[in-house]
Amino acid sequence: MSGDHESTFRRIIRSHSVRYPLIRSSDIYKLIYQAAMGSAHRVRSIDSAREHFKEEISRITCGPAEPVVDIITHDGSVCRINIRPYLQAGYSPEKLIGMFARTAEEFTGSTVQLEMYCWWILRMKADGLLTANIKDIDQYLTEMAESGYPAVHHSSVYRNAYSPSYRVIKSVLISELNLIQ
Question: What are residue 70's phi and psi, to 5 degrees?
């Protein structure tokens, strides 16, 4: 069973590496951090989250083709909702910010899961499955572990190339966003 989970995880990492070829170690770490720890570090209050979201929507620029829903955990429990395609499809910004805040309140992060993801990433590197842009992932993950696994920002290369814009939510909330027609 664990092998199935690891295979699913590998597919997630590979799909992000293909979709975002300029991805860096910090961007991979951010992905696995959000998968394991959620996004509570981003929500100080629902009002500030709402204001930040409105500001972000007003500055949103073009980006790569992305799915509305991007599952980011091996078990499917957490996803990123990509804001560009979400808004283009006519979905409610208010509902999304509500689900984001609810996830931040309800989701309990797991350092154990983050460490498992780090281990799986290192196995992917050993198996030659990672791109050259993230060849320093082992060193980067060691630094993050030694720093107590902090939240990080996307690399400037990633931000400039892809203008990432998404919110992390629990996948069980997708039905409440009315994404499934």
Answer: -125, 100
Q: What is the edge-to-edge ordering of all strands in the sheet holding 69-71?
A: 69-71, 78-82, 166-170
As a whole number of angstroms, the longest Cα–Cα distance in the chain is 45
- The Cα 20–Cα 78 span in angstroms is 20
Residues 39, 104 contacting (CB under 8 angstroms) = yes
pLDDT tens digits along 114-165: 999 999 999 999 999 998 889 899 999 999 999 999 999 999 999 999 999 9
- For tokens 């991007």, name the residue: 70
What is the dihedral sign for C-alpha 131, 133, 27, 82? Answer: negative
* Calpha distance 80→168 (Å, rounded): 4
CA distances from 180 to 131, 169, 177 (A): 33, 15, 8
Its pTM stands at 0.91
Contacts with 5 (C-beta within 8 Å, 6 or more apart), sequence order: 74, 75
pLDDT at 44: 62
Angstrom distances, CA of residue 169 to CA of 24, 129, 130: 23, 28, 26
Tokens of 12: 């997630």
